[in-house]
Amino acid sequence: MIKLIVTDLDGTLLNDNHEVPDRFWQIADRLFNQGVKIGIATGRPHFSIAAKFEAIIHQLYAISDNGSRIVHDNQELLSKSLPQHEVEALILAARQMSNAWPILCGKEQWYLENTHDTLMNAIGAYHSNFTFVDDLTKVQEAVLKMTVFDHAGSEANSYPHYQSFENRLKIAVGGHKWLDITRTDVNKGEAVQLLQTMHGISPDETLVFGDFMNDYEMMQTATYSYAMKNATPKLKEVANFVTEKGNNEAGVLDVIESLCFNNY
């Protein structure tokens, strides 16, 4: 019996227009009524999850910034920020790249130091809760994650610039044009394991979904680990299953209905 479901958002639960499938809401209600815990695990910030799932946010486990923060029913269960000296080094490295821009992800807003149209259009697809500063190295708020929007392609362009940081930070390709940087003790898998421990839920009772390499550790926490049909090949290698349908066809919901409702 599935007792915990955790899903990534973009490229997974959401379609390419970043929309929640219509029938998700009814399915979520049925799961809650069965006592199933639902988590949203994403590279997005908490305020983006809260806006997208406003009607049920108090019931969800909101795992934001690739596992840097967990909030449930207005209570912060986990918060891990980057060391300030590392943030400065990461920003300086980003400034050496072309067609790539660093973003500091705080609890309440994102911080940018560039207004390039390409960057603005990319962020606008997710939320509008950001502010501009003259110098990102001067930001005093705790930084849960630094992300780089890389118009040239994160894996080929920006990732090589950050390989030297991998001995002390977690560097994850979060999408075709996104590179996410957090502490080494932060990832979605650690967050899922925390929820499993809190509620006495085993991997055999856990169902997870993802599409990119920031979902890699999460795939290792569940017997029912699903990479999306549209997932990167590297994630499919570590997942136990692959969905029959992609994110634009609500593939996540088909699996949930099959595994969770057939016996009810």
> Which regions are unreliable across 5 or more consecutive residues at pLDDT < 50?
none
Please tell me what the overall shape is: globular
Do you know the CATH topology of the largest domain? Answer: Rossmann fold
- Topology as a string of helices (H) and strands (E): EHEHEEEHEEHEEHEEHEHEHEH
What's the gyration radius in Å?
18 Å
Q: Report the portion of residues in β strands.
A: 15-25%
Largest β-sheet summary: 8 strands, mixed
Number of domains: 2
End-to-end separation: 11 Å
Query: Structural class of the helices, strands and pairings?
Result: alpha/beta
CATH class of the largest domain: Alpha Beta
Share of helix, binned: 25-40%
Order the strands across the largest sheet as they lie in space.
5-4-3-2-1-12-13-14
List the helices and strands and how they pair.
Blueprint: E1 4-7, H1 24-33, E2 37-41, H2 46-52, E3 61-64, E4 69-72, E5 75-79, H3 84-94, E6 100-105, E7 110-112, H4 117-124, E8 130-132, E9 145-150, H5 154-162, E10 169-175, E11 178-183, H6 188-199, E12 206-210, H7 216-219, E13 224-227, H8 233-238, E14 241-242, H9 251-260
Parallel strand pairs: 1-2, 1-12, 2-3, 7-8, 12-13, 13-14
Antiparallel strand pairs: 3-4, 4-5, 6-7, 6-9, 9-11, 10-11
